Structures
1.
Amino acid sequence: MLEIACFEMTSAETALKSVADRIEFCADQQLGGTTPYIEEFRYLKSVYRKPIFVMIRPKGGEFLYSDMEFEQMKKDIVEFKKAGADGFVFGILTAGNNIDTERNRQLVELAGEIPCTFHRAFDRTPDLDVAIKKLIRIGFRTVLTSGGAENAMKGKEKLRALIEQYSHQINILIGGGVRSGNIHELKSFTGGSYFHSSAIPSYETFADDDEIKKLKNAL
């Protein structure tokens, strides 16, 4: 399964027309992805049939949110759910970078049958094994991770361990510097089945259809 992270409409449309399996739609690439505009999402859903997972993140930076920001996250899930979101991507940590069990559970319950992915805030937690067990109990279907490292290649040993231990309970979505030049090695080494990439070539700005094809073919 290949998911393409899309931070604006050009990349989103390129990926939705491509051989990718789904997209993660968000805004503000420089902030690592925030909640996109609902109007843009509605347009994409009106034109394309491919699944669109929506980032729910009211700001960049730390994954610690005020009460007001948390209420905004709940409102966004309700709004995007009504608009036809195929999945949600979010993650809330405590001040000590542990999983905020209660707040994440509230959002997962609000999403209902719509699958939820815990994003790379996971890689900031002090113990990935403790964290992933919490995510499984909360009800997340997927966790996006580079194995706690700067990128997936550097974290491939931990990724393999996570996949061996937990992939029967939660999908391990490998992300962080995944490109056509390394995805085959990552797949072979980790045994992973789920991959996440922006598919933006070096020195480019938008997702590239040829890169998406190379990523998919390498799987």
2.
Amino acid sequence: MAQNKMLSFVHLKQAYPEKRSAQERDKDFNEIYRSFSDEQASCQASRCSQCGVPYCSAYCPLHNNIPDWLKMTAEGRLQDAYALSSATSTMPEICGRICPQDRLCEGNCVIENSGHGAVTIGSVEKYITDTAWKEGWVEPLQPITELGISVGIIGSGPAGLTAAEKLRQQGYQVHVYDRHDRAGGLLTYGIPGFKLEKDIVARRVKRLADGGVTFHTNFHVGKDASLEELRERHAAILIATGVYKARGLATPGKELNGIVDALDFLISSNRKSFGDKVEAFDNGTLDAKGKKVVVIGGGDTAMDCVRTAIRQGAESVRCLYRRDRVNMPGSAREVKNAEDEGAEFVWLSAPESFVGKDHVQSVKVRGMRLGAPDGSGRRSPEPDPARLFDMDADLVICALGFSPEDLPTLFNAPELSVTPWGTVEADPVTLQTSIEGVFAAGDIVRGASLVVWAIRDGLVASEQMHQWLATRQQDKQDAPTKAKKKAVFA
């Protein structure tokens, strides 16, 4: 009977949760997708083909047991589906909202490749855990035992929060240090509410705090304490800071007022959603209201800026990207959402210079064309001498990606080794850095990447830290016995 619940893709079409109309959603920062009903979630989950080789799981960085929890959802066994979903992920409802499923699980779904349309995995994943929170199935965080050993985690983004949860479960006293006044990292301040409402992150943080994780906010490592001083407080340290340094433009006129970095723009917007006083927003510097906005970049951060500017009441929003639509690195779903909300994409274009006196007034745009493939196999953009035009702009937002900060200098830790790209150098297996007992995980090791990869790295880091600490404790316990034996045989 259970088998009859599955393989319904042959007669049931793919469906996503209802999306609020562009005219409704572009005026607020609430999530744009409504939730599945019980029946919708069950029906969409039943489309899974239960294939012998689940590429959805293989292409998920967490290797979630997707076919199994889809089957459980189709059969109405939601509590079991939640237990299985949360066994491999610390934040399934967050991944269900912000993962690029079209490039990962759904993009590699067997029935997608057979032309029937992928199972809407992300939407079902979100539904399962939202239901679990609603029904009280999300249990408090409780340690197996109390080990009496303290560990420190620098950064409270997805990698840091994941490691904090797993290490606390093992019984460690976990202290998380973050420079911001709220925990969550980019989940809290970098991702707009229309993709991830902030109470979703806050309840995860609260669960950790209620379970005994201590958060030290407004804490700047290197200023409030050096890395070495934190090492003296804790038996092991995890660096999970992410990457926050904006990649700059070498474009003439870049020093003009009105040209801002994407993260500054997004953080100020998210702070206003919390009701904070933000001087740079309140004085108009980071407020797009009534302005002609130009966003430069083609990734998901650029899409976040485009759609945020629309919601702030910009007069117009244009996005310049040097390649074409097919080669855009951002989610195709996000591009479509932005277009529906009124954004204009100017493909094959890049800024040649910014024009203005004290404040930017326009962008001189150079048309681009695609040349030979680069090392990654993508065709390299090159200037098109036949296309040059001006574009009015009151606010230019640069969303060209992020690089690591100079952590050895920032943390007063010159002995911390970094790669030529500035990322922290860590053993690929143990994730231990050049400093004994100091580990690193997430974007600060791999470079700017996806939230789901940061979660994966946090899981690995917690396992490796636990193994290292357990071995160290065992060595301490064995030391007197070894010394006694040595004395006997001396």
